[in-house]
Specification:
Beta-lactamase, about 40% helix, 5-stranded antiparallel sheet, 9 strands, two-stranded antiparallel sheet
């Protein structure tokens, strides 16, 4: 499969999907974007709102205004009814633990405690400062929807590329903080989408979002010969379990096709003699 065939396959998946789909896929070695479809389309963020919260927390740590070791009492009132990590009741947690529960296990309670500590104005200031122009956090996560509530958490796939590439290249924050963020995403536990059909033991740093209104996934694939970013966002996929499953399978098929595209190139690369004097990237392609 070449890139043209890959693009046609992704377009077919987009046209067959329920709701509105936004995709961006970038090869970090060549710096090219082989495929994108409405990457700046602004959608409800769902779990992706945790990324600007993480960015704001790390920014405060870099400024010396907060530390990973700082401990916070999480009161019973702040614990979501469906929380697993916090079901033991009111306890003390460090900022490091809250960030880990938020990204690794997708805990909304941890995200909401961090919102209380950091404040929505600072979170949104960080979005503007770091170029996440389509991202805004206006409300807590996992809360019951109130009729006529005008507050929304919004983002776009293009903003997620900017964030993930920034931590990948250690340009968004200091190198230790970028590496810290990268390790959090490597530990993300859900495999409903991108890794659904990939059985190989590969490293991926991702975040998934499954809510009533959106089904999103974004992250980095770390392969032997190449690293690449993929984000697939879907708005209004349908609230039924079948609708959610259909979108997850769509993400899985696209992810599997891109992964196998690189596996084919890896097999070809292995058969060639390595040239240490070749320009960067030439030994891969």
């Amino acid at each position: 499969m070449d890139h043209q065939q890959l693009a046609r396959m992704m377009l077919d998946e987009i046209h067959a999907a329920n709701g509105i789909v936004s995709i961006i896929y970038k090869d970090f070695d060549t710096g090219t974007i082989p495929f994108q479809f409405a990457p700046d389309y602004v959608m409800q963020a769902g779990e992706m709102a945790k990324i600007p919260i993480l960015l704001a927390a790390l920014s405060l740590i870099q400024e010396g205004k907060m530390s990973f070791e700082r401990c916070v009492i999480v009161p019973e009132l702040w614990i979501n009814h469906d929380s697993v990590a916090f079901e033991r009741g009111s306890m003390s947690y460090s900022i490091d633990e809250l960030l880990s529960w938020m990204i690794v296990a997708g805990e909304d309670t941890a995200a909401n405690v961090l919102i209380e500590i950091i404040g929505l104005p600072y979170i949104n200031e960080c979005c503007r400062r770091f170029g996440l122009v389509n991202t805004v956090v206006e409300s807590r996560l996992g809360q019951p929807k109130v009729a006529n509530d005008i507050h929304h958490n919004m983002t776009a796939a293009q903003d997620m590329l900017l964030f993930f590439e920034g931590i990948y290249r250690n340009t968004l924050l200091s190198r230790p903080l970028c590496e810290y963020a990268g390790r959090l995403f490597l530990r993300h536990r859900s495999n409903n989408g991108f890794m659904r059909y990939i059985c190989d033991d590969i490293y991926t740093g991702r975040l998934e979002s499954e809510t009533e209104t959106v089904s999103h996934e974004a992250g980095i694939f770390y392969l032997r010969y190449v690293d690449y970013f993929l984000a697939i966002f879907n708005s209004n996929p349908g609230s039924s379990p079948a609708g959610k499953l259909s979108v997850q399978r769509m993400r899985a098929r696209i992810s599997d096709a891109i992964y196998n595209y690189y596996l084919e190139r890896e097999d070809a690369i292995r058969s060639l003699p390595y040239n240490p004097n070749a320009p960067y990237g030439e030994n891969r392609y």
